Each structure stands twice: as structure tokens, then as C-alpha cells.
Amino acid sequence: xxxxxxxxxxxxxxxxxxxxxxxxxxxxxxxxxxxxxxxxxxxxxxxxxxxxxxxxxxxxxxxxxxxxxxxxxxxxxxxxxxxxxxxxxxxxxxxxxxxxxxxxxxxxxxxxxxxxxxxxxxxxxxxxxxxxxxxxxxxxxxxxxxxxxxxxxxxxxxxxxxxxxx
Amino acid sequence: xxxxxxxxxxxxxxxxxxxxxxxxxxxxxxxxxxxxxxxxxxxxxxxxxxxxxxxxxxxxxxxxxxxxxxxxxxxxxxxxxxxxxxxxxxxxxxxxxxxxxxxxxxxxxxxxxxxxxxxxxxxxxxxxxxxxxxxxxxxxxxxxxxxxxxxxxxxxxxxxxxxxxxxxxxxxxxxxxxxxxxxxxxxxxxxxxxxxxxxxxxxxxxxxxxxxxxxxxxxxxxxxxxxxxxxxxxxxxxxxx
Lengths: 166, 241
Hints:
- In chain A, about 40% of the residues lie in helices and about 25% in strands.
- With about 170 residues, chain A is of the alpha+beta class.
- In chain A, the strands form two sheets. In chain A, strands 1-2-3-4-5 form a five-stranded antiparallel beta sheet, covered by helices on one side.
- In chain A, helix 3 (about 100-110) crosses helix 4 (about 120-135).
- The radius of gyration of chain A is 16 Å and the shape is globular.
- With about 240 residues, chain B is α+β, with helices and mostly antiparallel strands.
- Chain B has a single domain, classed as Glutamine Phosphoribosylpyrophosphate, subunit 1, domain 1 (4-Layer Sandwich).
- Chain B has helices at about 20-30, 80-100, 105-120, 165-175, 185-195, 225-240; strands at about 35-40, 40-50, 65, 70-75, 130-140, 145-150, 155, 160-165, 205-215, 220.
- In chain B, a hairpin with a 3-residue loop joins strand 1 (about 35-40) and strand 2.
- The N and C termini of chain B lie far apart (about 70 Å).
- At the A-B interface, helix 1 of A face helix 2 of B.
- Chain B: One of its GO terms (cellular component) is cytosol.
- Chain B: It is found in: Cytoplasm; Nucleus.
- Chain B: One of its GO terms (biological process) is ubiquitin-dependent protein catabolic process.
């Protein structure tokens, strides 16, 4: 997870090396915008900027093979989650997932998500997803780090470590 | 055709001067005054605000620019030239962070700016930048720095300095009144304001001030805060006389 600005986080997964290179490049460019203009990019603008960069590299000799989730809090629009894949598709979504885990968690999210979830309910929904992975996914994923963004900024929540089935 | 860029503009004079650089320094002397003071825990930059026309929005004239979270600068001379330098420096600060994973030191960015300025004194078809700049900030190990660059591309570290119109008067004032290891942040800020008040007409209204404390980002002082310092300074002056 990369901190793009005080209220924007970028989760970057995919090809080893590409993830860090691309994410750090975006991170420093977002900071440059802040230095040049005196204020930070909104999450929507940051997401579109990231998408454009990914799209430009896609048709070059050096494409980045990364899947991204960008989460941010905007003063006027509120919280927002943006899903981006390695083909540079961008979609604003209420919930999202990448990888094999997505096959299992998207249905959980689909079933239990409501637009008016409170903070605790949202964290519980995330826990539900992780429990599902713990139960049905072939790989053992012992620990998940969790971060939350609200109007105060980015907060680290405690690690989620699902225990084995009884 | 590209022929017009073949000839160098900055060439030596018979007595060893680079006239274009000297003329650039004249342009700097015409710019509004900027003063910088390096304290123990705070660095301060103050500039003389030019009197704006009645219909002009004065917040668009920004002479103190932040280059990164730990470095900022002020300049004296041609504002348009400064914009180019500031932009390049900002990009270089981020580029340094990207390659080296650490914020650039004040000296590094000063060296970078100076080398750009020097390059323009030795390139075909280009003229030197008409600005001197004061670059202040904290390195990531916490040491404060103040550097001055000039159109020739040289840079020096200073404890306190001034550039622009009446720089000499301000520098003499600073030499008389600078105290080593000023522990108090207020003293450092007051020194910068007092130095500017020597040359600025009509007091606090024409001063713009920015400070940076260790591990904090640059803070531009609001007009009211500057006025508070100015009143405190006036009362001290009254008490002395």
C-alpha cells in the first residue's frame, strides 16, 4: 500500500518490481503536483492521472503489469474507491477486489454491502471476506494489514489474523 | 534556421568579467528585498511585498515558494526566470526522493539550482537567469541551512543574508544584530522582520514571511501575526530609547 497523499492510498499488486516502480512513480508525481500548486489532487483526479500513465505505458515497449485499487477521501465528494486493472480500465466502485481472492470475496461483498454502512459495519464486512478466504481459499493467508481513510486522513487498524477452522 | 543559436551571448570581457552575468546581477539589485535567517530550530524567509495596484489581487504575487516538505526558497530579480528555476527544483526534489528514497538535502538542491544557472552562462543562445535566491530548510538529520545562489551559478552558506534592493543595508543590520545559536524561535523571526523593516516603507503591511520549524512544513505567517511581531518590535524599540 502506498500513501499518495494525506487522504489517498494506492494498493498495487501484480508483476514483481513493476508494482513498486509504478506506484512510487505515481506517488512522487502526486507530491510534485502538491508542491507546484499548493494543494493536493483529489482522489478522482489522482485515479485518472494514474490510469492515463498506465494506459500510456501499455502501448509502449515497457508496459506495467499491475492491478490497482485507489482509495481516497474528498472534501466535497466524500469517500471513493477506484478499481483499475492492468489494461488500464478505471471504474469507481462501492467495493472491489483483485486476484484469485476476488472470485471468493466479490460474492460476499455483493450480498452484504449496503451504501449506508457505518465504519464498524464496513470493517466487519472486510472481516467476513477474510473469513471466507480462510475457509475456502486453497492458500493459507495468515495475516492482513488494514487501513482506513476518513475525513481525518489515513488510519492503521489492527492486523486481521484469521484462525484455523475448528 | 538554427544559425541564430550558434553564437554564445555570454563571453569574457578583456578584464575577465562576464558582462552578461554582471548585468544579471544588476537586474537582481532592482528586485524587491528578500531576507533569510537561520536559527537553531527554525529557518525564516521574509520578502518585501511590492505595492500592488488597487484592482490587482495581491495573493497572486508569491515570492516565497515551497520546493519540498523540507525546503523552501525566496528570490530577488526577474519573477519569470524564477518560475522556471522553482519548477525544475521541485521536479528534482521528487526525482531525488524517487531514486534515493530520502528527501534531498538543502545543499543538494542548492547545488542543483546553481548548476542550472551556471549552465545558462555557458550555453549558446541563452542568457543567464536574472535571479538570486535564498534557499532554506532542514536536512533529514535535522540540521538547518541557509544558502544563497546568484546568477553566476555560485552558492554559499550563510547564517543570515539579504538579496535584492537595499541588500547591503539589510546585511549590515544583520551583521550587527545576529546572535549565534538563537535558541528562541521568536528571536529569529523578529530579527528577520526587524531587518526588513529597515528598508520597507510603511511597516508590516508590506512584509511577507514564511517560517519552517524542524520536522514541520513551511508556514506562511498571516498578516495579523506579522503585525503582532511588528508591534512587539516597536514596543521594544520604545523601551530602548
